[in-house]
Amino acid sequence: MASKEMEKLLERVYKDIDTFDFNGQNVPRIILTDRKFDDIMSKIQGKPISVNTNLNILQDGLGHVFVEILLDFSYGEIHEEFLIYANESIDFFESLAKTTMFALSPPNYSEVNQDKIFMVQLPKPEKAVEAIDIIKNGLSKKSSLQK
Fold it and tell me: Which of 14, 25, 32, 60 could anchor a disulfide with 36, C-beta 3.0 to 4.6 Å?
């Protein structure tokens, strides 16, 4: 990957992610602004909803791995994209592969305020397992290239 392409990808990286304890499981979370979260919830509240989730993995063969998470909600014409730099977010993806779900929430989510969280179950759990394998393989290439 040329350095300009790498710079462009790094500029697009979504950094507001973490993992948190949800009912005894370490679950990955994408943190949205309060406004963005409330906007999504207002469009889907009370509706039967599914979320088509795709994980697109981008790598350069030099150990840089990015994962583009694409979400298409079945109602409300909602489409979200999050580009995550897997090199710096391995815990997020290991947790995703283990739980096969992730959360969307505003920054101030707490166990007390559980109406401010939206859980997304991956429709194809094997994709998360494949993703973590590809990520780890890409990261191992980077460490072997640095030696």
Answer: 32
